[in-house]
Amino acid sequence: MPNNSTITKFRRFAAVLPALFVLFAALPSSAQSIAADGSFTPYSMFGVGSLARPGISYNLSMGGIGIGDRNYRYINYINPAAVTERQAQSFMLDFGIEQGNIYYTANPATAVGGTGSDLLKSVNNTFNMHHIIASFPIWKSSAFKVGIVPYSNVGYKFVTTESNDDIIAEAGDIKYSKIGQGSIYQTFLGAGATFWDRLSVGADLQFYFGTINRYSSATFTTNTSLRSINSGWTFVTRAISGKFGLQYRQPLAGNTSATIGVTYDLATAFRGENIRYAYGVSASGKDTVFHSNTPLETMSAPSELGVGFAIRNTERWMVGFDYTRSNWTKAFLEETPGVDIKATTAQAFRLGFEVTPNRYDIRYYLKTLTYRAGAYYEQNYFTLNGSPIARRGITFGVSFPVFRYYNAVTLGVDIGQRGSVADNLIRERYFLFTLSFDLHDIWFVKTLYQ
Questions:
Q1: What is the CA radius of gyration of the chain?
Q2: What are the tens digits of pLDDT across the range 366-415?
Q3: Which residues on adjacent β-strands are paired with residue 316?
Q4: What's the rounded Cα separation, in Å, for the pair 410 and 398?
Q5: Residues paired with residue 263 on neighbouring β-strands, in sequence order
Q6: Higher pLDDT, 420 or 193
Q7: pLDDT band at 118 (very low <50, low <70, confident <90, very high)
Q8: Per residue, what are the HEC states of the chain?
Q9: C-beta atoms surrounding 61 within 10 Å
Q10: In this predicted model, what pLDDT tens digit does every residue of 81-99 receive, in sequence order?
Q11: Burial of 403 per CB tally in 10 Å (0-12, 13-18, 19+)
Q12: pLDDT (tens digit, 9 = 90+) per residue, 132-146?
């Protein structure tokens, strides 16, 4: 067993270890891995993790807009009222995958009192299923949808070694690890209806579920007489909430119309289990030091208000803008020793457009493709060291018509950045690719001739 001096020194180091991770000192240079995670970012260490950007490839390739958009060719689940924009008797199914390439950079001259001039760098790749959504009509101008999408993701792994000569002389080489993994998913059932051909309303019943694991370890790599220390916690979450949406469409000249939309997400209180544990590992086996299983009562997310506006020419083009805002200052955000973290107000600005040269061209296939682009700026729900964590980027995409009806394959590309190398933070630059398969069919059609 380690003596009291070693334990005291370890506890002092463990108290500031999270801060060292945030300052990037724990990330190895030129490390690379591939994981089936929805996200891999040090900014997922806190709260409910890194919030997923809502939308399918159709939305994400236009900066993430969707609150004021109505398109009968795609499932727009961002606004519950948009489900009513469809062809009569049409069945729609959309499922997608996501792949990410993230590049991390920090300045060691500002990290942990360092004096180096070379930037520390690391890279990670992720791949995972992204969503699956189905939609079909109920009666006349009403419709129904069901689906599962990501809400938040946790993914990080930091490894560093003991550098204090006094501790190494007494306890030998020590490797410290801090790892997090998991996701919270959102399953929804929604319906909407249109009144007077212009006003559409909708509502979603949302069910959240998932597991988040966060743990750390101190492994004595050369002194086998000392027990390695492992501790962490697991959140097994579930919650029920709701979302409401409204859209009003105003016809303009010709086939052009303007739509304004509003969405409101209810505040969500996550419930479930909070499992805390600590155990030691030695050559003789594994000893449990602490284990508890208590109700999860502190994790929550605030309500969110969103407004959007779009102008669409039915078969040629569309341009739109979205704004969302949510106040996290009274929501769940646990304290982290050694890290100056504070909850704040999250907000997002999104702008996007699409254009189709000639949807019905029978000679040139490239003219039937739909091309999209957009941009976004998103303020995160917490600050670190007094600095806001912003995510900004540009997006591109294209839909390839396939077979008949409105079947298509949609590719989206997101090029962006989060954080910076200033203020002891980490800069992430990423390339995210989403691929959606947009399937469309007509139900309940009576055949005139046999």
A1: 25
A2: 999 999 999 999 999 998 888 889 999 999 999 999 877 789 999 999 99
A3: none
A4: 6
A5: 245, 306
A6: 193
A7: low
A8: CCCHHHHHHHHHHHHHHHHHHHCCCCCCCCCCCEECCCCCCHHHCCCCCEECCCCCHHHHCCCCCCCCCCCCCCCCCCCHHHHHCCCCCEEEEEEEEEEEEEEEEECCCCCCCCCCCCCEEEEEEEEEEEEEEEEEEEECCEEEEEEEEEEEEEEEEEEEECCCHHHHHHHCCEEEEEEEEEEEEEEEEEEEEEECCCEEEEEEEEEEEEEEEEEEEEEECCCCCCCEEEEEEEEEEEEEEEEEEEEEEEECCCCEEEEEEEEEECCEECEEEEEEEEEEEECCEEEEEEEEEEECCCCEECCEEEEEEEEEECCCEEEEEEEEEEECCCCCCCCCCCCCEEECEEEEEEEEEEECCCCCCCCCHHHHCEEEEEEEEEEEEEEECCEEEEEEEEEEEEEEECCCCCCEEEEEEEEEEECCCCCCCCEEEEEEEEEEEEEEEECCCCCCCC
A9: 29
A10: 999 998 877 889 999 999 9
A11: exposed
A12: 999 988 887 889 999
Answer whether residue 112 shows pLDDT above 50. Answer: no
Query: Which residues neighbour 217 within 8 Å (Cβ) at sequence distance 6 or greater?
Result: 176, 177, 228, 229, 230, 231
Check if the beta carbon of residue 112 is closer than 8 Å to that of residue 25.
Answer: yes
Residue 23, both tokens: 């300052």
- Model pTM score: 0.85
- The predicted-structure confidence for 193-219, as pLDDT tens digits, reads as follows 999 989 999 999 999 999 999 888 888
pLDDT tens, 260-296? 999 999 999 999 998 888 888 776 767 777 888 888 8
Residue 289 amino acid letter: V
Tokens representing 200 are 């559409």
Structure tokens at 357: 């040269």
